[in-house]
Amino acid sequence: MTRSLIPTLARPDKIGFRLCIFIVFLVLVAPARALDIERADIREFIQEMQRDHGFDDEQLARWLSQAESKPGIIELISRPAEKVMPWHEYRQIFLTGERIERGKDFYRNNLAAILSAEDTSGVEAEIIAAIIGVETYYGDRPGKNRIIDALSTLAFDYPPRQQFFRRELVKFFELARKQDIDPLTPVGSYAGAMGMPQFMPSSYLAFAEDGDGDGKKDIWNNVADVAASVGHYLVHHGWKSEAIIAVPAKVPPDMATAAPGKALRLNTTVCQLRKLGVQFDSAQMDDDTPAVLIQLEDEDGPVFWVGFANFHAITRYNRSRMYAMAVFELAYEINERRRTSSE
Fold it and tell me: Is 174 a catalytic residue?
């Protein structure tokens, strides 16, 4: 298979201690409170679930009465790492020697599962491993918040994205009913993402796959299902098998001082970037290949890359250029560590 990954220049091993301390502080100091099911908006939600989705209103009321609204969750979702730190600090969280080594071990220990997902989806095995590595440290850190608490907090006490999380709460109850899961049991992230790949409930219902043919879609414990689900998600969002993800670029001085914006869509082409004076390796691409110019803040100033369809597909997993670049670089480093350890 033609490899789509290219070398990177640095491998820092520092951990993002400040972010970790901040998160722990919020979790410890912010008190939780029981959800008040007598609130008009919550009663309305229960009635809608009964009318539109066939749920028993008394059972829903019992479940929601045991949910907790947590102010710490609102604080955390208001300050995601992608928005509060520059690339060189964000990179240090995910490109550590330990995470790379664990990625190599995860790849080796689950070789059949992730290679099967690669064969089925066309998504490189190291990309699948890297997404799981970034999301949950290869399944070790799936989150400790009850999903019902996270989604209820955000659905009823976080107006900026209330409608989105209310829809996810609906999907969560549908998922629990479909999979015969006690909705008070599953845990995950402060945003309600679940399992090793951190799927939101709607993503689970749309993209979860039965990777080993056992009739279940277990994204919590079954790596075959997790890998197949990640591959399915990326393909649905435009992944192209064996295509280049991103390449480093040099830009003219006037562009280096004017940020190209933060749009994630493929808003230009290879030909247009060349005409602007952007220098990058485009030998394998047609002039009309969709592209996006990426600017990231390194310690010594801005660095530039050009991303293509597969980079864009990774940003559909998490709407962040830094996230996509972290996955991209971690995947390369996992592959390099595997290669060098076998020589």
Answer: no
